[in-house]
Design goal:
The chain is α/β, with parallel strands linked by helices and 170 residues long. Helices cover 32% and strands 31% of the residues. The strands form two sheets. Strands 1, 2, 3, 6, 7 and 8 form a six-stranded mixed beta sheet that branches. A two-stranded parallel ribbon has the order 4-5. β4, α2 and β5 form a beta-alpha-beta unit. The longest helix is centred in the C-terminal third of the chain and has 15 residues.
């Protein structure tokens, strides 16, 4: 399942509330942006590439990386940017969860791209280093959509309110 599936499901009434991420600028019709965050390159502590606070996108050229299983919005954007900047992404592992990717970075010396809050919360251990991707920067926007096929139930309204509270305070 990918973000476009969730968008379609909420639009056709299959689900009442959807939370999904996008990595491109612009509005998503019928959805509310509830958070925005920088994307970070994460890798082994002490790697020279991650000595500073920022790393240019071009530095991903040939770097042994892991990322989400395709189709995935982040993977798509990374591939498009790589083509535009004439670099080759070296995705050696695709994982279905952030835990799998975290462990691949920790134990296999791979690199991954994660949102800043995940890095600060889950990767603060001494085994990891990170730097903000720049030139171009990649930003994750998290969207909240509530179905309009029928009036929202109390449960849907409650979930939407809690999602707003959680994501706007992090």
């Amino acid at each position: 399942m990918c973000s476009s599936d969730l968008e379609e499901w909420v639009a056709n009434g299959r689900v009442e509330v959807a939370v999904f991420n996008r990595y491109r600028r612009g509005a998503v019709r019928g959805a509310e942006a509830v958070s925005r965050t920088d994307m970070m390159l994460v890798g082994p502590k002490g790697h020279p590439l991650l000595k500073g606070t920022e790393v240019p996108f071009r530095a991903l050229d040939g770097l042994a990386m892991c990322g989400p299983v395709r189709p995935n919005g982040l993977t798509t954007v990374l591939a498009e940017l790589a083509a535009r900047h004439d670099i080759e992404l070296n995705m050696v592992l695709e994982g279905s969860s952030s835990l799998v990717l975290r462990e691949a970075v920790a134990h296999c010396g791979l690199f991954a791209v994660f949102p800043r809050p995940f890095v600060e919360r889950e990767l603060a251990a001494s085994a990891f280093a990170s730097a903000r991707l720049v030139k171009p920067a990649i930003e994750q926007t998290t969207w909240l959509a509530v179905g309009t096929q029928r009036p929202a139930t109390l449960a849907a309204r409650t979930v939407a309110r809690l999602v707003r509270q959680i994501l706007t305070t992090r």
